[in-house]
Amino acid sequence: MKIIVINNIKGGTGKSTITANLISSLIDIGHKVCSIDLDSPQHTLFNYVNNRSEDLPLMECETMDYKGDCNEIKNKIDSLREKYDFVFVDTPGGDFESLKDICMMADIIVTPISDSYLDLDVVLQIKNKQSFMPGCYSKIIWDIKKKKSQDSKNLDWVIVPNKFNVRKTKNQESVYKLLSKASPVLSGRISNFIKDRVVFKELFNKGRTVFDLKKSELTVSRVAAKNEIRMLSKYVLGEI
Ligand SMILES: Nc1ncnc2c1ncn2[C@@H]1O[C@H](COP(=O)(O)OP(=O)(O)OP(=O)(O)O)[C@@H](O)[C@H]1O
Ligand SMILES: [Mg+2]
């Protein structure tokens, strides 16, 4: 079983949205997936899953408190190993006390980031067009990577450019270029981007994801959204 932790120290970058859609894409191709929502008290992912009607493919989610005992979370994850292929752990934003311990359990950390330089700052601090420094969040990830490598364990970090403008803008191009250039330095992989699409905003109340859309509901933009998530899930799993 692979443990995928969705995290960014910055809030509101699309962690829960990406988590719900990634889970759905993996269930769609037959994987056994469950999830833990650590983001109390808002529990966005848990509420998302609970909004689903019974005729939709089952998505499983439990809530646990990130302020609680990390061993409880670890034991919970261990108890899921036999039954599932993947467990997704959705986390709150911010640098909370148990963040490092939770990330230490991960095989993969997925970090959505928007096309705003303001959001980028936690990953990359831009000095001028030619040079950049790792942001405070990148340093946290490096620290975790280092600790894991001391136990001969690997940590794969995937940065997901999310909420990118549907129209190509100079700003998003420069953010993407910069991320790609910094990727080897950051030792993080940069995925395909997920665009800012209405479909990612409107399905929550019914707990649906782009993979639950009926044929009659598909538009060009929604098909594109589905392809973006499909591609992202392959990228996260290292298949492309
Ligand atoms: N690709 C996207 N296109 C359009 N809207 C998006 C996209 N991704 C996320 N959003 C919207 O951005 C907002 C924040 O998303 P979400 O709650 O998933 O972020 P989060 O990182 O989990 O936030 P928090 O830090 O509060 O947990 C929501 O309104 C969501 O609908
Ligand atoms: Mg969230």
Automatic annotation (TrEMBL):
Lineage: Bacteria, Pseudomonadati, Pseudomonadota, Alphaproteobacteria, Holosporales
Signal peptide coordinates: none
Gene3D superfamilies: P-loop containing nucleotide triphosphate hydrolases (3.40.50.300)
InterPro entries found in the cross-reference section: DNA_Partitioning_ATPase, MipZ, P-loop_NTPase
Official protein name in the record: AAA family ATPase
